[in-house]
Write a structure and sequence with these properties.
about 210 residues, alpha/beta, Rossmann fold, six-stranded parallel sheet, four-stranded mixed sheet
């Protein structure tokens, strides 16, 4: 058995990949919101995301959501996007075709717009989480200057601990079905140089979140 095989075997058998449910029950939430209602969770997500510089939209109808997407795209005629089966906005693909906006699959650093869905959002930190692979390319959310993420209200969970508890209940199965996981809290930013904050240094400078009913 090669060294690589030994390492992989050890990781697969490691106890932390199948955590004891008794331990999870003792988790202390970093940002506790006991008894939070669905509306309170939504409000908290919006507050935290806006504080991070995220543009939030809550359209009442899919047609309104599509109008918002087209406004953000503006005059661009080439975009990057996940497979539309993973973006929960019916009719979006057809409208892009009508506007002669082409979805480019190959790597193209000149493209300014990337459209994705989101698998989970975390209210306590205003974070969105993307499971990459199978029609959900990671570069769509990382390469363009503007990232548009579209998801439903019921995909917003309370916090990171709640999400992890759900993963554990499924025996961490999501990690076997995805190439990678991206957690995004606001637009890309850094202050490494002279403590001066720069937006969009290592990823999108704008994050637009559209929360559909």
């Amino acid at each position: 058995m090669s060294s690589r095989q030994v390492i992989l075997k050890t990781l697969r058998e490691a106890s932390f990949l199948s955590p004891d449910k008794n331990l999870l029950s003792e988790y202390r939430h970093v940002t506790p919101m006991p008894g939070a209602t669905r509306e309170a969770i939504l409000v908290r997500f919006v507050q935290e995301a806006v504080a991070l510089g995220v543009h939030i939209y809550r359209p009442d109808h899919p047609s309104e959501a599509i109008r918002i997407v087209l406004e953000i795209i503006g005059n661009e005629k080439k975009i990057m996007a996940w497979d539309f089966s993973h973006i929960l906005l019916p009719g979006l693909s057809n409208e892009l075709e009508k506007e002669r906006i082409k979805v480019v699959e190959e790597l193209d650093p000149s493209i300014e717009i990337g459209i994705t869905g989101a698998d989970v959002a975390l209210a306590s930190t205003g974070t969105i989480i993307l499971f990459n692979g199978g029609g959900k390319l990671s570069r769509v959310s990382l390469l363009p200057q503007k990232h548009i993420a579209i998801f439903r209200e019921d995909q917003i969970l309370l916090d990171f601990e709640t999400w992890v508890q759900g993963l554990a209940a499924d025996k961490m199965d999501v990690f076997r079905k995805t190439n990678s996981i991206t957690a995004i809290s606001g637009p890309s930013r850094t202050a490494d140089i002279a403590m001066e904050q720069i937006i969009g240094m290592h990823g999108p400078g704008e994050l637009h979140v559209i929360i559909v009913q």
